[in-house]
Amino acid sequence: QVQLVESGGGRVQPGGSLRLSCAASGNIAGINAMRWYRQAPGKERELVAAITGGSSTDYADSVKGRFTISRDNAKNTVYLQMNSLKPEDTAVYYCYAHIYDYTTWAACWGQGTQVTVSS
Question: Which pLDDT score, from 0 to 100, does residue 1 have?
Fold first, then answer.
């Protein structure tokens, strides 16, 4: 069974930085798309950043120039470096990965990690 475990969330002042990590473990034969989503209270989950198996990246307009997504394929891990954080970045952040477990491709989600930007 495949599992995604996130880490790196917390509380930071406006203008600060955080780095989120999400490690996939289990019976993994391959991973293509990896993404970060977030959900703020009372709002729908939104896509923040995405990276393909070939390491092409895409970002929500609201985070372009401030956030950077990257991956380490040897570690089955995706990262989200968040700089110049704003109060509106406060949300639960979820990682997503499309994983092949030698049988089928499946969408996998992490449990979420809280990011709070407040003075």
Answer: 86
